[in-house]
């Protein structure tokens, strides 16, 4: 489940970066000849940087919870964990 969540997060990141891409676009840096240029949007790139950090923290939390569950119950099987609940 954790690997699936990580893959889904990176797929969303790739989608967000592809939204900001413009064919033939240039960096949004102010230059003397700034007219009639197509710029690449930097907002999705900044959003993806924040998303990567949040995704990393979420992954670390999920792995820590999985480690604690395995330490307590000795298995990842949900049916066995429910039976041990009492």
Gap between N and C termini:
25 Å
Percentage of residues in DSSP E strands: under 5%
What is the global morphology? Answer: rod-shaped
Largest sheet: none
- SS element count, helices: 3
Q: In angstroms, what is the radius of gyration? A: 21 Å
Order of helices and strands: HHH
Class by SSE composition: mainly alpha
Low-confidence stretches: none
Mean pLDDT: 83
- Please tell me the total number of domains: 1
Q: Level of helix content?
A: 55-70%
**DSSP E strands, number:** 0
Short description:
With 86 residues, the chain is an all-alpha fold. 66% of the residues lie in helices and 0% in strands.
Describe the structure.
This protein is an all-alpha fold and 86 residues long. The chain has one domain. The protein has three helices and no strands. The model has no long low-confidence stretch (mean pLDDT 83).
Key features?
single chain, 86 residues, mainly alpha, 3 helices, 66% helix, rod-shaped
Write the layout of secondary structure elements.
Blueprint: H1 2-20, H2 43-73, H3 78-84
